[in-house]
Structures are given as C-alpha cells and as structure tokens.
Give the backbone structure.
Amino acid sequence: MKLDTLKHGFDHTTMPAHPSADYWPGDVIESLAHRHWARAEVRSRIDLAAWQGYLADLPRDPYVNLRWKRMSWLTLNENNDVEDMGECPMAQGGAFNDAESMADRLRYYAPLTREFISRPDVKAFVRAWARLWSIGPREPILMQITGVRGEGCVDPLQGQGIHADGCKALSIMVLNRENVAGAENHLYRDKEGRHSLLDATLDPGDILHLRDDRVFHSVDGIRQCNVAAPFERFIIIINSRFVDEFQNRMLRRHFPEAVLNETH
C-alpha cells in the first residue's frame, strides 16, 4: 500500500500550537491533538462574500477538465507578515495522487491575485492558520482557490478517490456551494476506507483541518439540484510541511532559502 509507511508513528513536529483565542476555538486544538482532524468555521472571521468575488476570473485548470484554479506559495517573514514567494510548480508523486492526469507531473497554475493576497482578512487567516500548525518564518505554505462548475455530474477529485495530499498540515475550506447535491466530505483512518472518521457536508465558510500524514480524505461526486441551472463548488486548500519528496525537490530548486520539512 502506497502510504502505509507514512501513517505510522507519532510526529511531534507538526502538533497544533495554541492559537490566539479570538480565531480558533479551543476544541479545535483538542480535536487535532487527539483525533488528528477538526471542523471549524471562518465565516465569522473573513468577508466570505468578498472572497467569493475572486471566483469570477479564475482560469481553467489546464490539466483537469471542468476545474478552475489559482495557487500561490506564501510564507511568513521574520515580522510575521505574509509574503508571496513566487513561482514553483505543484508536484505530487504517484504515492499521493492516483489520477493519471496529475500524478508525477509538474503542474503550473496562475497565481492568486495580488489584490486577494493583500486583503487584511486573507493575511489574518494565513497567519492564524500558520500559528495553528506552528509554521515558522520561511516555511512554504501552498494556498489554492480551486473548484468545479458545470452541468450533470462530476467527480471533483478527478479520479483521486481516497487519498492524502503528501503533507503534514492541511485544511480545506468551502468557499461556495451553488445548486449542488452531493459533495459530502469523508475522512478515514486508512486508504481503503474501512475505518471512517467523519462524514460531513460543508457549507460555505466551514473548514476541515487534518493531519494529512495521519488521516485520508475524499469527497463525493457533485450533481445539479436544479437541472435548468449549472452547479458550482469552490474551495480553499491550504497546506504545508510536505512529505512528498517530489514536491520538496521542486521547493528546494525554486526557493533555496526556504525552511523545508525533512523527510529523511
């Protein structure tokens, strides 16, 4: 099994730190520490409608049909401000991605817009997320806006199924959900899906935090509620501390001064 060796043992280097009391509730910390996942909401912390406004100009994903996407590599500097690190491709090895259209390939995407990254509530979100996972200065953080829109039915994972993303710290936030049936999120202890941890349909502003090296995840297919109108579902994905050596090689090449997770 591809990821067995990555799921054993207890790694203290990516334990959630106690965040500021005004962003993440204390039960998020407890749940991450004991269950390796936590569900929360951020709609009370961000201008969700304003974030949704950035979906209009998302470019199509050049590698996956019916998907739209932007992504940027961010980091915190020594003054705890959020910086854009510049271009580095997404690189997921076959051990972490079962989809032929994405595995073992370098994928380049348009970056998040400067206007979006510079928003105070976006910077506050990134800082709070980094604090939650004890992410320090110069550690790369990958932030994506991605999702699907269309008609009929679609697999939002494009064949990945139950999987891990190849990192230690991962969060998935739903940005919008329009005319959508399905798209239920699932968490599992194992890649085969024999041991279920969570079945939940996330509303806009809901977020799942998970230790990606301990928990597997998937999402159900999407179909239209009203066949006379298209569906649309977009999410924010933010993750760091990669255990995928393919991705780490690209990070070393593009950001030689970055602080990377050591996988050996």
About this structure: The CA atoms of residues 188 and 196 lie 5 Å apart. The helical segments are 4-7, 26-35, 48-52, 114-117, 120-132, 245-254. The chain is about 15% helix and 35% strand. The mean pLDDT is 88.
